[in-house]
Amino acid sequence: MNTEEMLQWADDILYTKTAKHLDSVQRAILEGAWQGLKYEDIAKNCHRSKSHVKNIASELWQTLSDLLGEDIQKANARSVLERKAISTIYNYGKSSQIVTSNINSHINICPENRPSSEDTKPPSPSPPNTPQNKNQTPIIDLTQAPALTEYYPRTTEETTLKNWILQTNARLITIYGLTGIGKSSLTLQLIEQIQNEFDYIIWQSLNEKPTLTTLQTNLKQIFSQTQKTPFPTILDYFRTYRCLIIIDDLQNIFKPHELAGQYLPGYEDYSQFFKQIATTTHQSCLILLTSEKPRDITTIEAENPSTQTLHLKGLREEQAQEILLKKQLTDEEKWPELITIYQSHPLWLKIISATINQLFNGSVSQYLADPNDIYLGDIEPVLETQLQRLSDSEKTVIGWLANQTNAVDISQTPAETALSKTQFLQAIESLNRRSLVEKEPVAGRAMFQINPIFKQYIQLNPDNLK
Ligand SMILES: Nc1ncnc2c1ncn2[C@@H]1O[C@H](COP(=O)(O)OP(=O)(O)OP(=O)(O)O)[C@@H](O)[C@H]1O
Ligand SMILES: [Mg+2]
Fold it and tell me: How many Å lie between the centroid of ligand 1 and the Cα of residue 89?
């Protein structure tokens, strides 16, 4: 067991019993105790006073002692936690129940640890909107989900999604936002919080571009592992059971070099499938994760109240600070500036923290010495991949936007773009679906602005748009 696994396990234990995650100081204490550090060194690592750390530590040891039924202090923390963790995991592995609160566990429904169809009684059908399996163990398959390595709470978004799913019974939810903004992480965390409300939770990635038929066959195969008599369609499962299905990386089945959110040839039937899920009566929920908001979703949404869309943006400043703390950056007074520049984008902050550590020994002041000429380092390839997908008209418009000082009024088509009004507005709309251009009200008027990091990148590399 390594430090990260121990922290994850301890966080799970704490969360399951207290509904609270470890905070940054508690994590630093556990990490420090694991490595045999003194409180003085732990305090330095997490930029807190020694007395503060000791107070938090004493509460933490007490809580863990109560939860685990054994006296835990800093000196014995490592041996006790390791022993307890191993015994829990062992018992879990032997359990016939397929349930976990461990967000890092990708629970494959494999024959040796799941109930056979002989001794498993599938949940019996009940009226829509009634979870079959409430407080029992759901069947979870996250084998296609990415690993959740680090997560700081996004309380507002978690609450919104829980409300849509559990209170208003949304049938189709789209979560879109920039690459690396945290769509998958948020959804994995959500699963942990609401898993007991469902009979089935299945994560499907579109990384390999499966056709709709392949995706449906995969889903049916997973359902059929606990079913004596398989149903003919996915909708039958959606009606009979409460299912939460996540379709990740939807943008992979959209056309590159064209306006955002249009299906590749041979994948158009996905649109029909999503519409069917949104408009048919059932008790399940399909979540789509994508960096490009699909064009058809806007139409489906306009007609169906059970369809919702969440545009995911950066973390709150507090959470973004946790990332910098974990990366052990210095010059805390400069952190807000760094966070603002990178818009609390978790992936960008992680990448740039690594660069700051490597080039400036963690000094944010040194990195920001010239705020008008920010070095983007390894963020560049991440931006480049997104720009490569743009259509010609989008490239023209984003190149033009990158040279504007302020947000622009789009009611006049700029002559220098040589685009018709329709082409110009379509390009703006499409860039907005990709989160590259944002709308902001200025004196009551809708104005549009390019994302500042993309602006910086395009100004530095104008040829990359050609
Ligand atoms: N709430 C969070 N707290 C801490 N780190 C986070 C959080 N959300 C995301 N991250 C980190 O940011 C990175 C990107 O997250 P994630 O993979 O969830 O983004 P995504 O939007 O799904 O990206 P993609 O579009 O590539 O699928 C990961 O390293 C993840 O650990
Ligand atoms: Mg993702």
Answer: 26
Same-domain pairing of 178 and 40: no
Asked whether residue 148 is domain-assigned, the answer is yes
Q: 203 has which bridge partners?
A: 246
Ligand 1 atom closest to residue 188's alpha carbon, by position in its atom list: 18
348 domain-assigned = yes
Q: Which of 181, 185, 315 to mutate to test the pocket of ligand 1 (most atoms within 8 A of CB)?
A: 185
**Ligand 1: nearest atom to the Cα of 154:** 1
Pocket flag, ligand 1, residue 207 (CB < 6 Å): no
**How many whole angstroms separate alpha carbon 37 and alpha carbon 148?**
27
Q: Are residues 116 and 198 in the same domain?
A: yes
Q: How many Å separate Cα 225 from the centre of its chain? A: 28
Q: How far apart are the CA of 83 and the centre of ligand 2, in A?
A: 34
Q: Give pLDDT tens digits for 315-338.
A: 999 999 999 999 999 999 999 999
- Helical segments of 266-345, H only: 269-279, 295-303, 317-326, 335-341
Residue 104 lies in a domain: no
Q: Look up the domain containing 264 and give its range.
A: 111-311
Please check whether residues 131 and 180 belong to one and the same domain. yes
Is the same domain home to 208 and 289? yes
Q: How confident is the model at residue 109 (pLDDT cuts 50, 70, 90)?
A: very low
Q: What is the mean pLDDT of residues 192-219?
A: 96
- For the Cβ of 433 lying below 6 angstroms from any atom of ligand 1, the answer is no
How many structural domains comprise the chain? 4
Q: What is the mean pLDDT of the chain?
A: 87
Of the candidates 155, 150, 242, 160, the residue with the CA atom closest to the CA atom of residue 195: 242
How far is the centre of ligand 2, averaged over its atoms, from the C-alpha of 75 (Å)? 39
What is the rounded distance in angstroms from the CA atom of residue 291 to the CA atom of residue 312?
Answer: 10
* CA 178 / ligand 2 centre spacing (Å): 10
Window from 32-41, 84-93, 241-250 with minimum mean pLDDT: 84-93
In a domain, 395, yes or no: yes
Co-location of 393 and 324 in the same domain:
no
